[in-house]
Amino acid sequence: QVQLVESGGGLVQPGGSLRLSCAASGILGRFYVMGWYRQAPGKQRELVATMTRGGITDYGDSVKGRFTISRDNVKNTVYLQMNNLKSEDTADYYCDARDPSEYWGQGTQVTVSS
Question: Which of 28, 68, 70, 104 has the fewest Cβ atoms within 10 Å of its own Cβ atom?
């Protein structure tokens, strides 16, 4: 019943920016944790960023200082502002939420290329 729908992915040049959104539906109340993971072809899924309901954040080392996670608890939506994008950021980005059951979105593709 719970659905997470990502949007905002696309093609961007190195050094550019994108903002991803993940809207949750089918649930009352708020998730304990919402965040983003990514997976590039041939690589393991890795943490991008997460945020608790209370605003505590966690970032993957490769994105610290460049990406910012934010959350609107009223809308049950989580965002990922990605700045200074690099080619190694190219991946499928997945929204994750826990209530504490875990749910995943379908993913949105981000391609960083000139």
Answer: 28
